[in-house]
Specification:
This protein starts with a strand and ends with a strand. The chain is elongated, with a radius of gyration of 22 Å. It has about 150 residues and is α/β, with parallel strands linked by helices. It has a five-stranded mixed β-sheet with strand order 5-4-3-7-6. A two-stranded parallel sheet has the order 1-2. Strand 3 and strand 4 (about 100-105) form a beta hairpin. About 40% of the residues lie in helices and about 25% in strands.
């Protein structure tokens, strides 16, 4: 089961609908055009369109499975006492005193440019269940980070 925000769920539904209603018909038209050119054994356009169709059908199937297992989580019923899903957490890297603020989301909604980090990331995994003031050490590829939880909000 995948918990996500209503915004993330709606975005996933929109992506799926776009793939089904726009991209898939375009690929089917490309296959039909290439098929009309004749000999399929040496028809590069036909084989390229079929490959694209296979990739697209795989992505559609994946998104459908994610949506089947998705549950929209209402952030208003959550408590902001510990680090967890859908909470905004401000942390300080004690090695360089750099402050970071992230909203913890499911992996399908993660986008660091928007300040959304996956609940499955090593940093958040180490912070889950921690409270304001707690300090944790996290092993990352660059070494070990020492992080302090400064604030938690919804």
């Amino acid at each position: 089961m995948e918990y996500m925000t209503q915004e993330g769920y709606d975005k996933l539904v929109a992506e799926l609908q776009h793939m089904i209603n726009v991209e898939l018909p375009r690929v089917k038209d490309a296959i039909a055009e290439a098929r009309a050119m004749g000999d399929l054994s040496e028809n590069f356009e036909y084989h390229a369109a079929k490959r694209e169709q296979g990739k697209l059908l795989g992505r559609i199937s994946f998104k459908q499975k994610v949506l089947e297992n998705a549950r929209v989580l209402d952030a208003s019923v959550l408590e902001a006492e510990t680090v967890g899903l859908l909470r905004k957490v401000e942390i300080t890297n004690l090695g360089n005193n750099m402050k970071m603020t992230y909203t913890i989301v499911n992996p399908h909604e993660a986008n660091l440019n928007e300040g959304k980090i996956s609940i499955k990331s090593p940093i958040i995994d180490a912070l889950l269940g921690k409270k304001v003031g707690d300090v944790v050490e996290v092993a990352v590829p660059a070494g070990v980070l020492k992080l302090r939880v400064d604030s938690i909000s919804l």
